[in-house]
Design brief:
The protein has about 180 residues and is an alpha+beta fold. It contains six helices and six strands. The strands form two sheets. The protein has a four-stranded antiparallel β-sheet with strand order 1-2-6-5, with helices on both faces. It has a two-stranded antiparallel sheet with strand order 3-4. A hairpin with a 2-residue loop joins strand 3 (about 80) and strand 4 (about 85). Residues about 80-85 have low confidence and may be disordered.
């Protein structure tokens, strides 16, 4: 962990983040196939504004990542199948970075926004938490497996949850500087 980010990483761990790693943004993998998985297999495709086809193009994702040098990867406990524990934790880390003079800090989640359980109401202008919405990494084309392997995690596809010992963790990124 870079010395200037260690105090923030320590706070994140004290708040309940399971693990925090600092990676160069050049190790974040963006791939075309990721958005195909969204389109052909995710029930939220086209239903939520933070999901494809409503979000970033791959070119925009690559340009955004090129503007940053580092990112924090957060490993989070998952409370339910589709909901990580901590979009709140991710926002807290983003805010802590901002208050620590990393004014460009920007969070990227895994999976679609979980604020509206049944139906996204953002389109109708009734989003209950518009300041908390961040793009899903998948909608940006981020290959989580390759990126997390680049960060040192040994990830494998498991055929069932029992082999994982329950629900697997979730991951999010916070672009730093």
């Amino acid at each position: 962990m870079d010395d200037d980010l260690k105090p923030i990483a320590d706070k994140a761990l004290s708040w309940g983040v399971l693990d925090v790693r600092c990676i160069p943004t050049r190790s974040i993998v963006v791939a075309e196939w990721v958005r195909l998985k969204c389109r052909y297999g995710c029930p939220n495709y086209g239903r939520r504004l933070d999901c494809p086809p409503n979000e970033f193009t791959l070119d925009l994702t690559r340009r955004l990542l090129a503007e940053y040098r580092r990112a924090l990867v957060l490993q989070l406990r998952r409370l339910a199948r589709s909901q990580p524990e901590g979009s709140g934790l991710v926002h807290r880390v983003e805010r802590e970075l901002f208050l620590s003079q990393f004014y460009r800090a920007f969070a990227i989640g895994a999976g679609s926004c979980g604020e509206c359980v049944d139906e996204c109401v953002r389109e109708a202008g009734r989003c209950p938490q518009p300041h908390r919405i961040r793009p899903a990494g998948e909608s940006m084309g981020i290959d989580w497996f390759a990126t997390l392997r680049n960060a040192g995690w040994d990830l494998r596809v498991l055929p069932d949850r029992q082999q994982a010992g329950g629900l697997p963790p979730s991951y999010s990124l916070v672009l730093v500087d």
